[in-house]
Amino acid sequence: SENLNIQQIRADFPILNEVINGKPLVYFDNAATTQKPRQVLDALLGYYEHSNANIHRGIHHLAEKATSEFEATRRRIQEFLNARLSEEIIFTYGTTDSINLVAQTYGRAFLKAGDEVIISTMEHHSNIVPWQMVCEETGAVLRVIPINDEGELLMDEYENMLSERTKFVSVVHVSNALGTINPVAEIIQKAHAVGAKVLIDGAQATAHIDLDVQALDCDFYTFSLHKLYGPTGMGTLYGKKELLDAMPPYRGGGEMIKEVTFEKTTYNELPYKFEAGTPNIADVVAAKAAFDYVDTLGKPHIAAYEHELLTYATDALQDIDGLRIVGQAKQKVSVVSFVMEGIHHQDIGVLLDQQGIAVRTGHHCTQPLMQRFGIAGTTRASFAVYNTTEEIDRLVQGLHKVKKMLG
Ligand code: PMP
């Protein structure tokens, strides 16, 4: 890469020095979770060593320090997403938690029998099941945008589905199983034209694509920090203020209230209305270092380098006899999902692991998508900014070995 020093970046990630089954680790499971740079690990330890206290209600020094570090991450996310207001940033435990929050509050309050909710064939289970649950409760109907054989949404079919019955559209920005980048700006604009609200599941997008929620005009945007070089157990729900204000609260408890009596409770204002209980303070504080890390490298530089890896891997893997890549969208992030003739994906995963190569195998929490392709699962290699073409060469050698043993 012209703009990034990959060896220097690799040195920021201590885990990349691990030796697995006698071989240097090749970590190609980044769509499941990325590794964490020293900067994030230091922030996490630093918080516990120098700032740890419960937030918001304390008047002592540490409580104020912890609160201010916690709230600094909220403003950092506001900047990262280009949200209009910091109270539009709700801390959650991750994408799954964020989508459940919207389905259980917005969905239960505003969906009724006969209304339609649109998702797509390539959704992660976390953007299917919460909507099925709320549809079952309200009598709303779930509709699904189909895809073509390359793994791209059929936008004409989507347009035909939209009507005054459409109340909510919830689609993935980037498919975790295929790598497809969806035309979310167009999806949002068309949904708004019929008065529907839109949630974008950005779990796989935030590490690769520059984001501007005001330009996109999405109503909700969700992601998980652990896929963005940040800690586990922490995510974000962005929502437009007027919608968040109109939504009933989600979990009840401390912090989300204004005043409690046994007769009646009034609720706190945004964002605290949706943040009951002691949040994941340490991981929220450490997350700031992950945004700083990504922005210092520059997402356009990260995306350009990862695209080189994607092209290199796609070419090399396609040369392997009997290997077929699943998902060949024109717009893709650095994810390569594939099947091999006569060899089960689980066997591929086990044999690659013996060579120190970490990939993901199976349905990737997208069972309906696998059904669409008529397969039980794939082997998925997903690349991050610290991966190299030499590592892809090792994957290719590894797959040749798999073929020799099982093919
Ligand atoms: N959506 C997509 C597209 C994902 O890839 C994932 C994580 N695999 C999720 C949602 C769920 O994220 P989390 O497990 O962090 O809640």
UniProtKB/TrEMBL annotation:
Entry EC number(s): 2.8.1.7
Cofactor: pyridoxal 5'-phosphate
Domain of life: Bacteria
Top EC class, one word: transferase
GO biological process, one term: cysteine metabolic process
Record flagged with keyword Cell membrane: no
GO molecular function: cysteine desulfurase activity; pyridoxal phosphate binding
Chain ranges of the Aminotransferase class V domain: 26-395
Keyword presence, Calcium: no
UniProt xrefs under InterPro entries: Aminotrans_V_dom (IPR000192), Cys_dSase_SufS (IPR010970), Cysteine_dSase (IPR016454), PyrdxlP-dep_Trfase (IPR015424), PyrdxlP-dep_Trfase_major (IPR015421), PyrdxlP-dep_Trfase_small (IPR015422)
Keyword terms, alphabetized: Pyridoxal phosphate, Transferase
Catalytic activity: (sulfur carrier)-H + L-cysteine = (sulfur carrier)-SH + L-alanine
Entry function: Catalyzes the removal of elemental sulfur and selenium atoms from L-cysteine, L-cystine, L-selenocysteine, and L-selenocystine to produce L-alanine.
Family: Belongs to the class-V pyridoxal-phosphate-dependent aminotransferase family. Csd subfamily.
Protein name as annotated: Probable cysteine desulfurase
Organism of origin: Arundinibacter roseus
